[in-house]
Design a protein that fits this description.
The complex is a heterodimer of chains A (about 130) and B (about 425). Chain A is built from 7 helices and no strands. Chain A is mainly α and about 130 residues long. The chains are: A mainly alpha (about 130), B alpha/beta (about 425).
Chain lengths: ~130, ~425
């Protein structure tokens, strides 16, 4: 049996996860918060996807460029939605905290479209949910 | 000096009002903006009063939690990298640009510059560095630097408004925004810029205010109505304040060509340091007196031509005394007796933004024709002997006013503003 991780980095991760969940609860629509709650219970990637899409739209720097309907998977984050590198980093950190996954800089750079972000988070969650060897 | 500069726009987020009308009313009626405050949930702290900002809630380190008046539209890409005082600064700048009748697309011409002054956000810096320590350096908020460090105002406002002229920040503690205004005047006189936006801002929170308590510089009087009492014998320290003030300075012919409404001319400035102590002003105000003389020389004026002095006097025992002695050395010694007041009895002392706030007050007083009085001045310090310190605000229109500012390290900066006909 693994002993619980009590390192400072783990404490920081827990604090960050809690802060991100609080932001979600206070500033996102109820449907998104509900999906996040259901994700906590079921680890369903479809529930996570609802949250990812909402977080993506929320982090668009110029909210006048926010699409009225769900953006297609091939829409580019930078050219299509006006993301800049700091907004992408901010969004990725927020997703890391919410879903308690770790995303490297190299991985961030590979994600360039809406579809790639959704698929990428789905994959990360699957990995973190898999039983540990 | 062929190129002259005039004040054409003002914006206020201050303890005595969040727009020019409210501020003017407070100055005329001597209505103070101080309130009780408790820091860090500790009722034992001796500091009980601050110059608070009403209609804003910025206690959270997350901008998503902030509340501010709905009339300000702040895009996500701007607010995400603001500190609390950056929010105040944004709102004050929006007001000043509207007041000056300047559309945003006129600011990107390269002839418009931006000078700002704040100490940065100790609150937000502490928050971000604490997160960094918790994560053992592996993580940090990507906006942490540009939202927190000194310079955050100029980084953010320059980017938001697309400023392509001179952009810089000034850090000289309580004299900072006066340096910003003086250097802006130089840039206009030298033909480097036609228009300058000058902004000063500070926060009212434990991280900004309490370090001054450790220096024993703050009043421990718990009564908001009497705690700030510049030049009075019962004064016991300054009352910290926050907010933001923005002033638009334009080359006079440029302003007249576009039919701008003019508050006043900024006729001169000067500075001189004490060379004495890191925190305490020179006991006889030698540096401040020299700064006043240099400012008079720059504006080519004699002491007797000054009608009103907006004093720096913050309500500290040593600072007010040294300023009174400096005023006597410059004015009484020359047989001049201008009216003098410190408006910090109303506002408290907003640190870096003091100079620009009081230059803006002087601009309003010149245009609207009144002389602000000294709130809470019951028994003037004996160092004030011979000085004219009106208790109430007077419906007397000054023509030429001097604005004093002093900061740590003995920096002293003064400006002279002059009433000007509209034509």
């Amino acid at each position: 049996m693994e002993s619980p991780d009590t390192s400072p980095a783990s404490a920081a991760a827990n604090a960050a996860a809690s802060e991100a969940a609080t932001i979600l609860a206070h500033h996102f629509p109820a449907a998104v918060c509900d999906a996040y709650s259901r994700f906590g219970a079921t680890r369903s990637p479809d529930e996570a996807d609802i949250v990812v899409l909402a977080v993506l739209l929320d982090h668009i720097p110029d909210q006048k460029r926010r699409p009225k309907s769900e953006p297609a998977d091939d829409v580019a984050l930078v050219a299509g939605l006006g993301f800049d590198s700091v907004a992408i980093t901010e969004m990725v950190f927020f997703l890391e905290d919410l879903f308690q996954v770790q995303i490297t800089n190299d991985e961030i750079l590979r994600v360039q479209t809406v579809g790639e972000l959704r698929a990428f988070v789905r994959e990360k969650i699957a990995l973190s949910s898999a039983p540990r060897a | 000096m062929s190129r002259r500069a005039v004040v054409t726009g003002l914006g206020f987020i201050t303890s005595i009002g969040n727009d020019r009308t409210a501020v003017t009313d407070s100055l005329r009626a001597l209505r103070p903006g101080l309130a009780r405050i408790e820091f860090l949930g500790n009722s034992n702290l001796p500091v009980k009063v601050c110059g608070t900002i009403k209609d804003f809630a910025v206690e959270s380190a997350s901008w998503r939690d902030w509340r501010y008046p709905a009339r300000y539209e702040i895009p996500r890409e701007t607010i995400r990298s603001l500190a609390p005082h950056g929010l105040y600064a944004f709102c004050a700048t929006e007001q000043a640009l509207a007041d000056a009748g300047l559309a945003r697309d006129t600011l990107t011409d390269g002839a418009t510059g931006l000078y700002c002054a704040s100490a940065g956000s100790a609150f937000l810096l502490h928050h971000h560095l604490r997160q960094m320590h918790l994560a053992q350096g592996e993580r940090g908020n990507p906006m942490g630097v540009v939202a927190s460090i000194a310079g955050t105002l100029n980084f953010n406002l320059a980017a938001h408004y697309g400023i392509r002229g001179a952009v810089s920040g000034f850090v000289a503690a309580c004299a900072s925004s006066s340096h910003a205004l003086g250097c802006a005047l130089d840039d206009i006189r030298l033909g480097r810029q036609d228009r300058m936006i000058i902004v000063g801002a500070e926060e009212v929170n434990a991280e900004t205010v309490l370090p001054f308590a450790a220096m024993r510089a703050l009043s421990t009087n718990p009564d908001p109505l009497t705690a700030s009492r510049p030049f009075d014998r019962q004064r016991d320290g300054f009352v910290a304040a926050g907010g933001a003030v923005c002033l638009i300075l334009e080359e006079m012919e440029t302003a007249r060509r576009r039919g701008a409404s003019i508050y006043a001319e900024l006729a001169g400035w000067g500075q001189a340091a004490d060379g004495y102590n890191v925190a305490v002003s020179h006991p006889e105000g030698l540096g401040l007196a020299e700064a006043m003389r240099r400012t008079l020389a720059d504006a080519q004026l004699a002491p007797a031509e000054i009608d009103y002095v907006n004093a720096h006097a913050t309500s500290t025992i040593a600072g007010d005394r040294s300023e009174a002695l400096a005023l006597r050395a410059v004015f009484s010694a020359a047989g001049a007796r201008p009216r003098i007041s410190s408006t910090k009895g109303l506002t408290g002392h907003p640190l870096s933004m003091a100079g620009i706030m009081e230059a803006a007050f002087c601009s309003v007083a010149l245009r609207d024709g009144f002389t602000p009085g000294n709130l809470n001045l019951l028994q003037p310090d004996e160092a004030c002997d011979g000085l004219d310190l009106p208790r109430a605000s007077l419906e007397i229109a000054p023509q030429i006013v001097l604005n004093n500012t002093s900061g740590f390290g003995g920096s002293n900066v003064c400006h002279i503003l002059r009433r000007i006909s509209a034509s």
